[in-house]
Design goal:
Length: 127
């Protein structure tokens, strides 16, 4: 059974940086396109960033472009989301997700396209 476990969330001041990680077990990371989503109360789950199986393609929601970087280490079955210049509006529970996909160069950006989800990690940015 594929499991995703996030870590690295916490409290950070506005303007600071934080990196959240996601370890995948029960499956081979390079079989999945990966993504990060976030959720705040009263809002829909939002796509934050995605990365293709071959690591060559990435995508970001407009509000985080230039500040966040998604990466993956297939050998270590780990996906990262490095977050810089954090803002109060980045406060959310961040979820790692994996999509079973044949093509190595495709990114998924809709939650319904993902097959596996982590339990989430809270990121709080104080202003």
């Amino acid at each position: 059974q594929v499991q995703l476990v996030e870590s690295g969330g916490g409290l950070v001041q506005a303007g600071g940086s934080l990196t959240v990680s996601c370890i995948v077990s029960g499956g081979t990371l390079n079989s999945y396109a990966m993504g990060w989503f976030r959720h705040t109360p009263g809002k829909d789950r939002e796509f934050v960033a995605g990365i293709s199986r071959d690591e060559q393609k990435t995508a970001y929601t407009d509000s985080v472009k230039g500040r966040f970087t998604i990466s993956r280490d297939n050998a270590k079955n780990t996906v990262f989301l490095q977050m810089n210049s954090l803002k109060a509006e980045d406060t959310a529970v961040y979820y790692c997700a994996g999509a079973r996909i044949f093509h190595i160069d495709i990114i998924r950006s809709r939650a319904v396209e993902y097959d596996y989800w982590g339990q989430g990690t809270q990121v709080t940015v104080s202003s």
